Amino acid sequence: MAFAITEEAIEDNLYDRLAARYTRALARSMANTKQVKAANVLNNAFNSSFAGGDGKELCATDHPIATGGTFRNELSTAADLSETSLEQSLIDIAAFVDERGLKIAMQGVKLIIPKELQFTAERILRSPQRVGTADNDINAMASMGMIPQGYRVNHYLTDTDAFFIMTDAPNGLKQFVRSPVKTAIEGDFDTGNVRFKARERYSFGFSDPRGIFGSPGAA
């Protein structure tokens, strides 16, 4: 009696597995770099070395107006995130003027904070009564529906006590995508190595400082 023996060839393609792994790692690295670059607009918001078109940093107390005078998108006295500082920020945002000095009635729509302030922000924006007081007062910001988009934690912010409020200004923070991300893989004939590369072009900045209001914190 004869038996037919068959063997199944199993191909263990190391390059395919490594290619998938390193392509994902490269994509994560690209995404991380993009987040860091985007967050740097806010990380440098109070640094006069990073000036905008009006010669001032993103958040300043003396942005010049074309017809004369100035406006500010920073608290006149730096303060940590609190009910008082947040309310004053919203009042200051509502006082914004255009280049002719006319009131434009802007509003704050989103609070942007580092991870260290997330619990403070949750208490301030979500509590039905005022935070840290025995008075039976309502939380005015919650009752009035201020900052309708709530708060967002940006894990790439480097200052642990700075906070920012995005406004409804039509031309505030900007991102330009000049070339979307492209990845490529190729083998080296001489060495047998596999090379991976990725390419992307973009830039971040701001056109109108009225798009953001900030405080560097009291410290």
Structural overview:
- This protein is of the alpha+beta class.
- The protein has four helices and eight strands, in the order αββαβααβββββ.
- The strands form three sheets. A four-stranded mixed β-sheet has the order 4-3-5-8. A two-stranded antiparallel ribbon has the order 1-2.
- A hairpin with a 6-residue loop joins strand 6 and strand 7.
- The model has no long low-confidence stretch (mean pLDDT 87).
Anisotropy-based shape: globular
First-last Cα distance: 90 Å
- What's the story with the biggest beta sheet? 4 strands, mixed
* Radius of gyration computed on alpha carbons: 26 Å
The count of helical stretches stands at 4
Order of helices and strands: HEEHEHHEEEEE
Task: Return residue spans where pLDDT drops below 50 for at least 5 consecutive residues.
Answer: none
- Summed over residues and divided by their number, the pLDDT gives a mean of 87
Strand content: 15-25%
Helical fraction equals 25-40%
Question: Could you give a short description of this structure?
Answer:
This protein has four helices and eight strands. Helices cover 26% and strands 23% of the residues.
Helix and strand arrangement:
Blueprint lengths: L13 H30 L19 E2 L5 E2 L11 H12 L13 E6 L4 H9 L13 H5 L6 E3 L9 E5 L5 E15 L6 E13 L5 E4 L4
Parallel strand pairs: 3-4
Antiparallel strand pairs: 1-2, 3-5, 5-8, 6-7
List keywords for this structure.
219 residues; alpha+beta; 4-stranded mixed sheet; two-stranded antiparallel sheet; 4 helices; 8 strands; 26% helix; globular
